[in-house]
Amino acid sequence: MKKRSMCLFISRRLQVLVVFSFFLIRIDAQVQVKSYTLQEALDHASENAYQKISSDYDVASAKKKIWETIATGLPQVDFSSQYNHSLDLAKSLLPIEFFPEENWPSGAQPGDKIPVAFGTSYDANFAVGVSQLIFDGSYFVGIQATRVFLELTEQQQRKTEVEIRNGVAQAYFIALSARENRNAFTELLKVNEEILRETRAQFSSGFVESMDVSQMELLVNDSRKRLMEVSRNEEVALAVLRFSMGLNPTDEIELSDSLTYLSGRIIAGGMPMEILVPDTHVDYQLAMSNEESQRLYLKNERVQYLPKISAFYNYQKMGFADDWNLFDEKWHKAQMVGLKVSVPIFSSGMRYARVQQQKLSYQKSQNEREMVLHDLYNRFLTAQADMRSSYDNYLYSIENRKLALDILEKTRVKFSHGIASSSEYTQQQSQYIQAHLGYVQSAVNLMNAHIALLKATGQL
């Protein structure tokens, strides 16, 4: 009996362990965190961002559009069928003289008309038609236009990808800055709490006044408040980054790169000497493709003066009966083959007006291409100037933060030895916080300027 109880106890313990292990595995799977460098975040967004997926659908649709246009010039086959039951046959009026006089209704007079029904109560037919386009100027222009349309769609996809990568980079930098601030304020809070404990101990021994304790308590509370703010900012920044990358809102992610590493890599490479090659920039390519599409639209309006020629063949069979079963009756066939020619002659100036409108649209697209070219150079020069300013400001901010930290540390030591007041320490800490925030912002500005320069040169 004891042996059986022991076996049951062991069995239940094993069941509990299995369930508990399964629960731990599920928890571990749920909290799995994926880490991304900046490049990995950009690559992931280039494949999985919501805007990228939508642009992929646009490109696939444009490819189908090409075949749709080509198919309009290939043989077209149509089949049609109809089955009719005439509840009341349509009647026609015939002069009474058409019939022998002995068949005239009573009271009928010469010149009267008699209603007569033609046809049968049931009839059916089916037909097969084949048509083939022989010549249509719009068809050949349309094939060229669909290829340009596909090129435009692919270029728009590349532009969308550039905007996605630009947005992801900015979101990544903001998240890094929030993390940098969180780490700094976490460390600052620890230092202030330690100083508060020391100040309270000194107050108990009569070495400092109560005002110094209150001043340090105020400083600790301010540090806690700032820490909560930057922590919330980090959560929001990560949420924006997840959306930009096409991740689920519940996905847990970490950033492998740091603000110092990314900005330091830019500084180590020296001031970038990028050049602008307009023909390789997606914005200029879009402008050129738009100009080409407008030229083809103009060409399409001009070919409307040309004739349209097509050939056709129709085959038809018809059956008639006075009961519903037509398949026992003889069916009669009809065939037709022909050529259809449509020649535009006079439209009261409508076609001419359309040509002139499209000519103006084409000239407008040429002007827009020139405008895009000049805008590219302006953006490039602006991005270069911003990069130089951000480069210099970042170097100054590093030095300023280093100096502010050194001053803060010396003031803390003085305060611990009773040489400096709590007000002086609070003032120096505020100075350090401003220097730190300035450093973080200058680092973000530097990286954003670098991204903007890559975007302006078409290398993002």
Task: Give an overview of the whole structure.
The chain is an alpha+beta fold and 460 residues long. Helix content is 65%, strand content 15%. It is built from nine helices and eight strands. It has helices at residues 2-30, 38-48, 50-71, 137-204, 210-245, 259-268, 282-302, 350-416, 422-456; strands at residues 33-36, 76-85, 91-95, 113-117, 122-135, 252-255, 308-321, 331-342. It has a four-stranded antiparallel beta sheet, with no helix packed on it. A two-stranded parallel ribbon has the order 1-6. It has a two-stranded antiparallel sheet with strand order 3-4. Helix 4 packs antiparallel against helix 9 and helix 6 (259-268) crosses helix 9. The protein is elongated. It starts with a helix and ends with a helix. The relative contact order is 0.12.
